[in-house]
Design brief:
Elements (H helix, E strand, L loop, with lengths): L3 E5 L4 E7 L2 E7 L2 E5 L3 E7 L3 E10 L5 E12 L2 H7 L3 E2 L9 H21 L4 H5 L2 H13 L2 H5 L2 E13 L1 H114 L7 H8 L4 H14 L11 H16 L1
Antiparallel strand pairs: 1-4, 2-3, 2-5, 5-8, 6-7, 7-9
Helix pairs in contact: 2-4
């Protein structure tokens, strides 16, 4: 009414109220009445913004790459930005110009300028794998850029979301990568087979070493057994020698015993013969008749036999000798009776 308007802003908007070209009030989240014919209101958003970008560059080997990412920034000096770009709003709080797009484009241009020199110095394969390096280049370029400093903004961060080659080159790289991966797979298979062969060789070598060790142990066992056999044979020989020595000693002792026994028997026989000879010596010169008479045998048969002996000795002197049958019969009967007894 009569040109007086009321306007209200949120807390994330920095407001500058110009009246007749001079700043009447400024601050965040203001709400006030103003006279529209002589007032101009600038509203600058203070929150952080995420600015997506995508641009194409050429690598050192003349290949195109597409770089996609985003830049985070916020307006730290709104009055500085208000002097560079137009953020004036109408009575309804809407921007009269779209200078926020200019701000975004200038940031993207600075980011692309910082990136292009680096991309032009490397090859396609390196560029695809250089996201971290590009992020650092963008941050360094934006923070050191005078144009960015003059606009009163603060760069919060830069992120590279993707770096891609053209579809044809992507397929070529995929083919090359696939071949290299296949070669690596073949190399891995070769190494695995080689490792398996090496392990098999080691196993065979271990088995051979084990067999050699077993043969060596068996040889040592055989040698030890032979030594034991030799030792046992030597011990048996020594035992036999000791037995023979003992037998010889026993036989020698037996021989000495027999000789001693024979000598003793000889001495005993000589002693007995001497005794007999000494005993019979007095009777040596005595007539047998006298000895018979000394025997004094009362048996009439003995006397008859002596008589017959005497008759036999003097047979040349006897002409006729008559022996009665009764006498012979008595002698014979007496002998038979003695035999029966």
């Amino acid at each position: 009414m009569f040109g007086i308007q009321h306007i209200k802003f949120d807390s994330m908007t920095y407001v500058i109220h110009f009246k007749n070209g001079d700043i009447k009030k400024e601050g965040r989240g203001l709400s006030f009445f103003y006279f529209a014919p002589n007032s101009s209101i600038v509203a600058i958003p203070m929150g952080s913004n995420d600015l997506p970008f995508i641009f194409s560059e050429t690598t050192n080997d003349y290949q195109s790459v597409n770089i996609q990412g985003q830049i985070s920034y916020k307006i730290s000096k709104p009055k500085v930005l208000a002097d560079v770009l137009d953020f004036t709003v109408n009575d309804y709080g809407q921007y009269k110009k779209n200078d926020i797009e200019k701000l975004n484009q200038r940031i993207i241009n600075e980011a692309q300028t910082a990136t292009s020199s680096y991309i032009h110095s490397i090859k396609l394969k390196d560029a695809i794998r250089s996201a971290k390096a590009i992020e650092e280049r963008i941050m360094e370029g934006l923070k050191s850029s005078p144009a960015i400093g003059m606009m009163g903004i603060e760069i919060l961060g830069a992120n590279i979301l993707g770096i891609s080659a053209t579809p044809e080159m992507a397929r070529a790289l995929e083919t090359d990568t696939r071949e290299k991966l296949q070669q690596e797979a073949d190399q891995a298979i070769y190494e695995r087979r080689n490792f398996a062969v090496e392990q098999e060789r080691r196993i065979k070598e271990t088995e051979l070493n084990t067999e050699i060790a077993v043969e060596e142990k068996q040889k040592q066992i055989a040698e030890k057994r032979m030594e034991s056999e030799v030792q046992r044979a030597d011990n048996e020989r020594k035992l036999r020698e000791m037995q023979l020595t003992a037998d010889i000693a026993v036989e020698n002792q037996r021989k000495e015993l027999i000789l001693q026994k024979t000598a003793n028997e000889r001495k005993e026989a000589e002693t007995q013969g001497f005794v007999i000879e000494t005993t019979l010596k007095p009777y040596k010169d005595i007539d047998w008749k006298t000895l018979t008479a000394l025997n004094n045998n009362p048996d009439p048969k003995f006397n008859i036999s002596l008589a017959f002996r005497q008759l036999a000795e003097n047979a040349d002197k006897i002409g006729n000798l008559n022996i009665s049958p009764d006498l012979l019969d008595s002698l014979l009967n007496s002998k038979e009776s003695e035999r029966q007894d």
